[in-house]
TrEMBL record:
<comment type="similarity">
    <text>Belongs to the leucine-binding protein family.</text>
</comment>
<keyword id="KW-0732">Signal</keyword>
<dbReference type="InterPro" id="IPR051010">
    <property type="entry name" value="BCAA_transport"/>
</dbReference>
<protein>
    <submittedName>
        <fullName>Branched-chain amino acid transport system substrate-binding protein</fullName>
    </submittedName>
</protein>
<feature type="domain" description="Leucine-binding protein">
    <location>
        <begin position="33"/>
        <end position="348"/>
    </location>
</feature>
<dbReference type="InterPro" id="IPR028081">
    <property type="entry name" value="Leu-bd"/>
</dbReference>
<dbReference type="Pfam" id="PF13458">
    <property type="entry name" value="Peripla_BP_6"/>
</dbReference>
<feature type="signal peptide">
    <location>
        <begin position="1"/>
        <end position="23"/>
    </location>
</feature>
<dbReference type="InterPro" id="IPR028082">
    <property type="entry name" value="Peripla_BP_I"/>
</dbReference>
């Protein structure tokens, strides 16, 4: 859990603060939001830390119309049956006004059948297109897979990378990601390989790296879930291509003593010089004594957005209406940029970026 100091932190969102601190003289019962997922993975831990920091700051600023904000964390075990059970429990609880979650696609798909028409949900974790347009009560705070692919296309164009090998999950989502990249890319795709992830057969990745080395691409785009062996094999075999992976590579490292040029796409740029981003970085470092990841920032912004929606909309239906009405002209400024939603609930505003994979030495030192 993030441990926070008592010194008030400068509010990042003046418009939100002005509304939140205005006590209405009514109930002092907490405004309850449920955060649902499985909270042990590195991205989920970062997400949880961002949520906790936002709750602390909202309450330091006076709460939601004078009422304290409370976020309760629930574990769905990444299981669809458990996700449906938790969702039904939350819908039946009159205290809960909104949900942050879930943290995996399949549990979210099942849970939304329960939430639909009854509970507003902001998902701060998933980029899957399977969620797009699933429900008018669901809002995705993370850019979609197609936005990720477009970011890699821009990266390739900026670097003049004209020969690409694609290695992707052999699923409908993985194939769609590869096809989206291929349609936008102006260079040559010299290899397009569906792999059996996240559980490849022993030796699969060694074979893929060897094949890619023979094809001599200058870019390998690998939106796969388990990159550790690929990075190790690419370094061991001296693959000379630039390798770009998926957002889940944020917890991976590379050996700085071996060659290789490794990157991964992330949903937002924490290296920007925006005032909101710099202020968030300072606050998070002071609170968690660690570097935030993009998912910490998204969890933070999503929580503050729900606080604003609760202050404006009040009940579940009002919160959903307020979120659905957000458009670029009324977007809410935050760490990740100006956030609003398209009519299908996808995020408008945050731009994915490509960042280097950390070295093992940097990881051991606690800084990316």
């Amino acid at each position: 859990m993030v441990r926070l100091g008592t010194k008030p932190f400068r509010c990042l969102f003046p418009a939100i603060a002005a509304l939140i601190v205005s006590a209405c003289g009514g109930s002092r019962e907490p405004v309850v939001v449920a955060a649902v997922g499985e909270w042990s993975g590195p991205d989920e831990i970062a997400l949880k830390q961002g949520i906790e920091l936002a709750v602390q700051q909202v309450n330091d600023a006076g709460g939601v119309n004078g009422r304290p904000l409370r976020v309760d964390f629930h574990d769905d075990k990444h299981d669809v049956t458990e996700a449906a059970r938790v969702a039904a429990e939350l819908v039946a609880d009159p205290e809960v006004v909104a949900v942050l979650g879930h943290t995996r696609s399949d549990p979210t798909l099942v849970a939304m059948k329960v939430y639909d028409g009854q509970m507003p949900v902001i998902n701060p974790r998933l980029s899957s297109p399977d969620l797009t347009g699933l429900s008018t009560w669901l809002f995705q705070a993370v850019p979609t897979d197609s936005a990720y692919s477009a970011a890699v296309v821009r990266f390739a164009a900026e670097r003049g990378l004209r020969r690409t090998a694609l290695l992707f999950n052999n699923t409908a989502r993985g194939r769609a990601t590869a096809e989206h990249f291929q349609k936008q890319y102006r260079g040559s795709v010299v290899a397009m390989d569906p792999a059996y992830f996240p559980a490849p057969l022993p030796g699969d990745l060694k074979t893929f790296v060897d094949y890619h080395r023979q094809q001599a691409p200058d870019l390998v785009f690998a939106p796969i879930g388990e990159p550790k062996e690929y990075i190790q094999q690419a370094q061991a075999q001296g693959l000379r291509a630039v390798v770009v992976g998926w957002d889940v590579w944020s917890s991976q490292t590379r050996d700085p003593s071996l060659p290789g040029d490794f990157y991964h796409v992330v949903p937002v740029d924490l290296a920007s010089q925006r005032d909101e981003t710099r202020a968030f970085l300072r606050a998070f470092r002071n609170a968690a004594h660690a570097e935030p990841t993009p998912f910490a920032a998204i969890g933070y912004d999503a929580t503050r957005l729900i606080a604003r929606a609760a202050a404006e909309g009040g009940d579940r239906a009002g919160i959903r209406r307020w979120l659905a009405a957000l458009r670029p002209e009324s977007a809410q400024a935050g760490v990740i940029g100006s956030l609003s939603f398209a009519p299908d609930g996808t995020a408008v505003g945050p731009e994915p970026v490509i960042v280097p994979v950390r070295t093992a030495a940097a990881s051991a030192g606690g800084r990316p």
